[in-house]
Amino acid sequence: MIRAVLLALLAAAVAVPVGHFVAHWAGWSTFCLGLALQMIFHFRNFARLDRWSRQPLVDASLEGEGEWDNIFGRLYRHEKDLRDQIARRDQEIAMLIAAGQALTDGVVLLDTQNHIMFCNTTAETQLGLKVATDRGQSIVNLVRQPEFVAYLEAGDFSRPLTLRPERYKDRVYAIHVIPYAGNRRLMQIKDVTQADRLDQTRRDFVANVSHELRTPLTVLAGFLETMQEIDLDDDERRRYLGMMADQSRRMQSIVQDLLTLSSIESAPPPDNDVVDMASLIDKLRRDAEALSGGRHNIVVESDGRGDLRGSEPELISALANLVTNAVRYTPAGGKITLHWQTSPQGAEFAVQDTGPGIDPKHIPRLTERFYRVDRGRSRDSGGTGLGLAIVKHSLNRHQAQLDIKSELGVGSRFAARFPASRVANG
Ligand code: ADP
């Protein structure tokens, strides 16, 4: 500014002597020429500023002349600071979005009208949304399940909504809506399928246990009532007491198996004791013969090598269950073979029988608690429906697999396969 005034004064200082010594018009012309030069100088810088402001680039250095260079410098720094700030904000927003995307829960941000502002990929999959096309759309137009729409419209978010989505029938979601920033809503979608299944399993289990115990209890109560009300002769009395003893033994077996199952479930990892397989198989054979009472041909086929590492009581319980089942389900005259074989891959203990066999459709469910192919036959042979569940648990704890092969009318083969890490002296 001062520079502009000084230049005007300089023009005047040159113009005055010219006007005095040459001619008036020459003085004025000199003065006007000075001012015009200054104006040209300023217009050039104005034009430069005009061009730059239309497309302010911070990488091309903006240079002006004279005082203009300072103004351009300040503008340039201001623009650069602004851009740095925006870049930092963009980076922070990108980090927040990345964090939202990384969440294993679905997240949807809604505005006050339930329009989608953001949703992460988990929510896209869960609700069948596409953020690229659905942003700005009302979520109730896209997720039309009546219970979801009613929940959002009721506006009471004190409890989450449990939703079984129409697109994934086997999934269960817990949807929490958290109001934020006034009337905006953050929707968090948790996949609770696993917890729901566990809950269902627990409910089924309690129902099954009650049912299993109720039957013998009802029978027992009925006999007691009869004995209280009717005078029975000695024979009848003995017969009734015998049947009552059967029912209480049945309840005892169920409770015993339940206790075994729960102790296996809550026990720490099994020991690493070396279990002598030759004597274990010998014991299993003797127990099987005792249970069979000579009705079956019981054979051992063993390569005689290798022992197992693990908890002896658990391994005995698992393998004895397989042998006991073979004896209980194989009709008299049948053959039961106990196999033991080791290889570099591990070891296998298998029980093969010539019993009734099992329809393939039942095989995947045999290790479920209380699952029986033929309830009556299982009960008559003293089964609780928990044997194979105990086997599966004990084997899992020893990293072993239960493999079941069976053919109706031919027989069954139940094999416990142990990894090499569980084999000792192999
Ligand atoms: P249970 O106490 O009823 O025997 P398990 O869990 O031991 O219960 O076995 C589940 C079901 O598997 C049995 O009810 C039976 O139907 C079937 N099963 C098990 N072992 C055999 C076998 N060796 N031959 C035929 N069916 C078997």
UniProtKB/TrEMBL annotation:
It is found in: Cell membrane. It comes from the Bacteria. It catalyses: ATP + protein L-histidine = ADP + protein N-phospho-L-histidine. Residues 208-422 form the Histidine kinase domain. It is an enzyme of class 2 (transferase). GO terms for molecular function: kinase activity. PROSITE patterns: HIS_KIN. InterPro entries: BphY/WalK/GraS-like, HATPase_C_sf, HATPase_dom, His_kinase_dom, HisK_dim/P_dom, HisK_dim/P_sf, PAS, PAS-like_dom_sf. Keywords: ATP-binding, Cell membrane, Kinase, Membrane, Nucleotide-binding, Phosphate transport, Phosphoprotein, Transferase, Transmembrane, Transmembrane helix, Transport, Two-component regulatory system. SUPFAM superfamilies: ATPase domain of HSP90 chaperone/DNA topoisomerase II/histidine kinase, Homodimeric domain of signal transducing histidine kinase, PYP-like sensor domain (PAS domain). Pfam families: HATPase_c (PF02518), HisKA (PF00512), PAS (PF00989), PhoR (PF11808). Its EC number is 2.7.13.3. Coiled coil: none annotated. Its main location: membrane. Member of the two-component regulatory system PhoR/PhoB involved in the phosphate regulon genes expression. PhoR may function as a membrane-associated protein kinase that phosphorylates PhoB in response to environmental signals. This is Phosphate regulon sensor protein PhoR. It comes from Dechloromonas hankyongensis. The lineage of its organism: Bacteria, Pseudomonadati, Pseudomonadota, Betaproteobacteria, Rhodocyclales.
